[in-house]
Amino acid sequence: MTARVGVVESAQADARTQQMFAAIKSQMGKVPNMMKTMAHSPALLEGYLAFSGALNRGVLPEIVRQQIALFVSQHNGCGYCLSAHTLIGRHAGLKREQVLLARQGQAQDARQQAVLNLVRDILAESGDLSTEQFNAARQAGLSDAEIAEVVGHVALTTLTNYFNQVAQPAVDFPSVPSSLEPAEAVQA
Q1: Enclosing H/E stretch for 150
Q2: How would you class 46 by CB atoms within 10 Å of its CB: exposed for 0-12, middle for 13-18, buried for 19 or more?
Q3: Selecting from 2.40.50.100, 3.30.300.130, 1.20.1290.10, 3.20.20.10, what CATH number does the domain 62-187 have?
């Protein structure tokens, strides 16, 4: 698939964007194509980085954040994000089978499952949870901070999913199949 929107290379970028690229590269070892494409709007890139950075300092552990990203990306059909979060999730400690389970909204741990159940309800209801759905999250032991951050991570992942589906940047992570065929997805 050819990218609909090209990337901004560092040499073409303004000083503000070059600073963001340098920070991304020092943290990730590279500037992913999604971020190079977002750089057409330095405001978007800066907003994405600020939102992502703030949520990464929240109460949800990295593994849970990656499970959310995998589930939302599968739901939204974003191959770029599935590929990126499969690699990032594996580096965070998710095993191959846990990656596949997360993409299906499943977890082996009860607390992680409670988070993914909340994500499922948010996605299914476009955020308009019933009292029963909200109370189920509470009864599963999720705190107000965790509930708030789950909403934030669903929104952040949806932003990147939609951006990638519109711009179609080249996938610069090991590509994973978007299908949920167990034999294929476990290979990821």
Answers
A1: helix 144-167
A2: middle
A3: 1.20.1290.10
CB 75 within 8 A of CB 85: no
What is the chain's pLDDT, residue by residue, as a tens digit (188 residues)?
789 999 999 999 999 999 999 999 999 999 999 999 999 999 999 999 999 999 999 999 999 999 999 999 999 999 999 999 999 999 999 999 999 999 999 999 999 999 999 999 999 999 999 999 999 999 999 999 999 999 999 999 999 999 999 999 999 999 999 888 654 444 44
Is 147:118 a contact under the CB 8 Å cutoff? yes
Beta carbons of 156 and 73 less than 8 angstroms apart: no
pTM of the model as a whole? 0.94
Is residue 167 within 8 A of residue 5, CB to CB? The reply is yes
